[in-house]
Amino acid sequence: MKNEERIPAWTKEWYGFTDAGMKWLKYHGCEWHKVCADAGDLIVWDSRTPHYNVPTKSNVDRLAVYTCYMPVANATQDDLKRKKKAFEDRVGTSHWPNALHAGTNQAKRNGKPDHIVRDRPLHDPVLGERAFKLTGIPYIPA
Protein backbone atom coordinates (compact mmCIF):
# COMPACT_ATOMS: atom_id res chain seq x y z
CA MET A 1 0.00 0.00 0.00
CA LYS A 2 3.03 2.28 -0.10
CA ASN A 3 1.95 3.83 -3.40
CA GLU A 4 -1.75 4.00 -2.63
CA GLU A 5 -3.43 7.38 -2.63
CA ARG A 6 -4.97 7.88 0.79
CA ILE A 7 -8.51 9.07 1.21
CA PRO A 8 -8.33 12.63 2.60
CA ALA A 9 -8.73 12.60 6.36
CA TRP A 10 -9.30 15.21 9.04
CA THR A 11 -6.50 13.68 11.12
CA LYS A 12 -3.36 11.66 10.35
CA GLU A 13 -4.46 8.94 12.77
CA TRP A 14 -7.37 7.93 10.51
CA TYR A 15 -6.69 5.84 7.44
CA GLY A 16 -9.41 5.38 4.85
CA PHE A 17 -8.90 2.42 2.53
CA THR A 18 -9.51 2.84 -1.18
CA ASP A 19 -10.53 -0.11 -3.36
CA ALA A 20 -6.83 -0.82 -3.92
CA GLY A 21 -6.24 -0.90 -0.16
CA MET A 22 -9.17 -3.26 0.35
CA LYS A 23 -7.71 -5.59 -2.29
CA TRP A 24 -4.31 -5.40 -0.56
CA LEU A 25 -5.89 -6.47 2.75
CA LYS A 26 -7.67 -9.39 1.08
CA TYR A 27 -4.49 -10.45 -0.74
CA HIS A 28 -2.68 -10.52 2.61
CA GLY A 29 -5.27 -12.80 4.20
CA CYS A 30 -7.54 -10.30 5.91
CA GLU A 31 -11.24 -11.12 5.98
CA TRP A 32 -14.12 -8.92 7.07
CA HIS A 33 -16.31 -10.32 9.82
CA LYS A 34 -19.66 -8.77 10.69
CA VAL A 35 -19.99 -8.60 14.45
CA CYS A 36 -23.54 -9.46 15.48
CA ALA A 37 -24.05 -8.03 18.93
CA ASP A 38 -27.07 -7.97 21.16
CA ALA A 39 -28.14 -5.13 23.43
CA GLY A 40 -25.67 -4.81 26.30
CA ASP A 41 -22.88 -6.75 24.60
CA LEU A 42 -19.29 -5.62 25.14
CA ILE A 43 -16.85 -5.91 22.27
CA VAL A 44 -13.18 -5.43 23.11
CA TRP A 45 -10.69 -4.99 20.26
CA ASP A 46 -7.63 -3.08 19.10
CA SER A 47 -8.79 -0.03 17.12
CA ARG A 48 -5.67 -0.23 14.94
CA THR A 49 -7.34 -3.22 13.27
CA PRO A 50 -8.94 -2.22 9.94
CA HIS A 51 -12.63 -1.73 10.70
CA TYR A 52 -15.75 0.17 9.81
CA ASN A 53 -19.36 0.52 10.84
CA VAL A 54 -22.55 1.21 8.96
CA PRO A 55 -25.82 2.78 10.06
CA THR A 56 -28.60 0.45 11.07
CA LYS A 57 -31.09 -0.42 8.34
CA SER A 58 -33.90 -1.14 10.78
CA ASN A 59 -36.28 1.22 12.53
CA VAL A 60 -34.62 0.38 15.85
CA ASP A 61 -32.06 2.94 16.96
CA ARG A 62 -28.57 1.69 17.74
CA LEU A 63 -26.28 3.25 20.29
CA ALA A 64 -22.65 2.35 20.52
CA VAL A 65 -20.12 3.79 22.92
CA TYR A 66 -16.50 3.52 21.87
CA THR A 67 -14.05 3.92 24.73
CA CYS A 68 -10.32 4.08 24.20
CA TYR A 69 -7.67 4.07 26.89
CA MET A 70 -3.93 4.61 27.13
CA PRO A 71 -1.55 4.86 30.10
CA VAL A 72 -1.65 8.32 31.66
CA ALA A 73 2.17 8.24 31.62
CA ASN A 74 1.96 8.50 27.79
CA ALA A 75 -0.07 11.72 27.95
CA THR A 76 1.40 15.22 28.23
CA GLN A 77 -0.15 17.89 30.44
CA ASP A 78 -1.51 19.53 27.27
CA ASP A 79 -3.09 16.16 26.33
CA LEU A 80 -4.73 15.93 29.75
CA LYS A 81 -6.04 19.50 29.54
CA ARG A 82 -7.60 18.78 26.13
CA LYS A 83 -9.11 15.59 27.53
CA LYS A 84 -10.51 17.51 30.52
CA LYS A 85 -12.10 20.08 28.20
CA ALA A 86 -13.58 17.32 26.04
CA PHE A 87 -15.03 15.70 29.17
CA GLU A 88 -16.44 18.98 30.46
CA ASP A 89 -17.93 19.77 27.03
CA ARG A 90 -19.29 16.20 26.85
CA VAL A 91 -17.73 15.55 23.46
CA GLY A 92 -15.94 12.45 22.30
CA THR A 93 -12.38 12.14 21.17
CA SER A 94 -10.87 10.10 18.40
CA HIS A 95 -9.36 6.62 18.71
CA TRP A 96 -6.51 8.20 20.66
CA PRO A 97 -7.65 9.07 24.17
CA ASN A 98 -5.18 11.92 24.58
CA ALA A 99 -7.95 14.06 22.98
CA LEU A 100 -5.73 15.45 20.23
CA HIS A 101 -8.92 15.61 18.15
CA ALA A 102 -12.21 16.17 19.96
CA GLY A 103 -15.63 15.67 18.42
CA THR A 104 -18.80 17.71 18.59
CA ASN A 105 -22.26 17.33 20.01
CA GLN A 106 -23.87 17.59 16.60
CA ALA A 107 -25.90 14.39 16.57
CA LYS A 108 -26.96 13.28 13.12
CA ARG A 109 -29.47 10.73 11.92
CA ASN A 110 -29.07 9.53 8.33
CA GLY A 111 -26.65 12.39 7.69
CA LYS A 112 -29.05 15.10 8.84
CA PRO A 113 -29.20 16.88 12.22
CA ASP A 114 -31.12 14.76 14.72
CA HIS A 115 -34.56 16.07 15.72
CA ILE A 116 -33.52 15.86 19.37
CA VAL A 117 -30.75 18.41 19.68
CA ARG A 118 -28.98 19.11 22.95
CA ASP A 119 -25.40 19.81 23.95
CA ARG A 120 -25.55 18.05 27.33
CA PRO A 121 -26.80 14.62 28.36
CA LEU A 122 -30.13 14.45 30.17
CA HIS A 123 -28.24 13.40 33.29
CA ASP A 124 -24.62 14.31 33.95
CA PRO A 125 -22.44 11.34 34.85
CA VAL A 126 -21.75 10.53 38.48
CA LEU A 127 -18.24 9.16 38.56
CA GLY A 128 -16.68 6.98 41.20
CA GLU A 129 -12.99 7.39 42.04
CA ARG A 130 -11.80 4.91 39.39
CA ALA A 131 -13.95 6.38 36.63
CA PHE A 132 -12.76 9.88 37.56
CA LYS A 133 -9.15 8.73 37.25
CA LEU A 134 -9.92 7.41 33.76
CA THR A 135 -10.83 10.96 32.67
CA GLY A 136 -7.20 11.98 33.28
CA ILE A 137 -8.33 15.06 35.24
CA PRO A 138 -6.75 14.05 38.60
CA TYR A 139 -3.32 14.00 36.93
CA ILE A 140 -3.40 17.72 36.09
CA PRO A 141 -1.60 19.75 38.80
CA ALA A 142 -3.82 22.40 40.37
List the helices and strands and how they pair.
Elements: H1 19-27, H2 77-89, E1 108-109, E2 112-113, H3 129-134
Antiparallel strand pairs: 1-2
What this model shows, in words?
By secondary structure, this protein is an all-alpha fold. Helix content is 20%, strand content 3%. The termini are far apart. The model has no long low-confidence stretch (mean pLDDT 81).
Q: Domains counted in the coordinates: how many?
A: 2
How would you write the strand order of the largest sheet? 1-2
- Number of DSSP E strands: 2
The low-confidence parts are none
Please report the distance between the alpha carbons of the first and last residues.
46 Å
Shape by Cα distribution = globular
Query: Which band does the percent of strand residues land in?
Result: under 5%
Calculate Rg over CA atoms. Answer: 18 Å
Helix content: 10-25%
On the 0 to 100 scale, the average pLDDT is 81
Overall SS class: mainly alpha
Tally of DSSP helical segments = 3
Characteristics of this structure?
142 residues, mainly alpha, 2 domains, two-stranded antiparallel sheet, 2 strands
Q: What is the compact description of this entry?
A:
Helix content is 20%, strand content 3%. The protein has two domains: 1-65, no CATH class; 67-142, no CATH class.
